[in-house]
Known about the structure:
The chain is an alpha+beta fold. The chain has a single domain, classed as 2-Layer Sandwich (Alpha-Beta Plaits), CATH 3.30.70. It has helices spanning about 15-20, 45-55; strands spanning about 5-10, 25-30, 35-40, 60-65. It has a 4-stranded antiparallel β-sheet with strand order 2-3-1-4, with helices on one face. The protein starts with a strand and ends in a 23-residue tail after the last strand.
Amino acid sequence: MFAERTGYIIWVSDVKAARNLDKYGTVHYISRRMHYVVMYVNAERAEETIKNIRRLAFVKKIERSYRNEIKTEYSSNGPDKTRAYTL
């Protein structure tokens, strides 16, 4: 149903110009103070999209987000401590 997406953190020198990144993918967040943009692009065309983004004059550095690879399923093997605090 949904296309697979890859997240990227793009460090920029000009935050106003960073608004133009919207045509390359979905801009999730723009940090005005730290000068970075979090955006998601289509995973199938990520390499060619990143090549085009690197050519922009205001882009300093591009880092890939590893959020998709982090384990988000947690297991509770320890005892339940909430029952000890009940009245």
